[in-house]
Amino acid sequence: MESFSTTAAEAIRLLVSGDPHLWAIIAVSFSTTVKAILIATPPAFLLGFVLTMARFPGRWSLISFFNTLLSVPTVVTGLVLYICLSRSGPLGSLQLLFTQSAMVIGQMLLAFPVLVAMSFSAFKAADRSAWETARTLGASPGQALLTLMYEVRYGLAAAGIAAYGRIIAEVGCSMMVGGNILHHTRNIPTAIALETSKGEFAQGIALGLVLLLLALTLNFGVTYLHRHSELTP
Question: Which of 211, 200, 152, 196 is nearest to 33 (CA)?
Fold first, then answer.
C-alpha cells in the first residue's frame, strides 16, 4: 500500500489536472443536487409559511411529521423510492430507476423536510406585522409573502444551505436508486464508497477533499448569515 503522502499527492494531482473521470463524477453530484434544491425549495417554503400562518385541524401533527422525517436515514428513503420505481412498483412504468431523475427525486425527498422545518422556524420567528402591514397597504397575498420572505431571508438562506449540505453528502439513497453507474449516476459519495472498497484511495481522497471544501464553504455561509442577521436591525 502506498504511503499517505504519496496517495494525497496523487489525489491533488487528479484534481488540478482536470482528470475527466473525476470531474464527471463531480459534475453529476452538483447537477443532481442543484436541480433537487431548486425544485424542492419553492413548495417547501410555501408549506412552511402556511404552517406558520394558517390554523387548521392536524396542523401540529403535520409539523411533527416533518420534524420526524429529519431523522429518517437516507437509506430508508432510498429503499422506499426503490420499491416505488422498481419494475413491479406503482411507478415502475416511468422507468426512472437507475437514472439521474431518480436521484433528483430521492434528494428532493431528503431536502424537503429540512426546508419545511427550518422555513417554519424562520417564519414563526418573524414579525407578523410585516405581513399584516403589506396586506393593509393593498399588497396581494403573493406580494405580502415576498415581503415577509425578505424579512426572514437569512433564515431561509440558512435552510437552503442546510438542505443542500444534507443531500450533497448522502450516499444511501443515491446508491439505491441511481445504481452508481459510471458517467451517468455515479456521484461523489457513491464514488468514494466504491473506490475505497477497491483500494483506490487517491480518487477517494480527491473526492473527499471536494466534499470537505464544500462543507467548509456551507458552514462559513451559515455562520455568516447568522452573524449578519444579528447585526442587521
Answer: 211
CATH superfamily of 4-231: MetI-like (1.10.3720.10)
In order, the DSSP letters of 40-59 are HHHHHHHHHHHHHH---TTH
CB 8 within 8 A of CB 205: yes
CA pair distance 128, 88, nearest whole angstrom: 49
Tell me if residue 9 falls in helix, strand or coil. Answer: helix
User: Residue 33 in contact with residue 167, Cβ under 8 Å?
Assistant: yes
Cβ atoms of 33 and 164 closer than 8 Å: yes
Residue tagged 434528494 (cell numbers)? 107
Alpha carbon separation from 108 to 8, 147, 219 (Å, rounded): 33, 26, 21
Per-residue pLDDT tens over the stretch 83-104: 999 999 999 999 999 999 999 9
Per-residue pLDDT tens over the stretch 133-163:
888 888 888 888 888 898 888 889 989 999 9
CB atoms within 10 A of CB 139: 15
Question: How far apart are alpha carbons 10 and 73 in whole angstroms?
Answer: 33
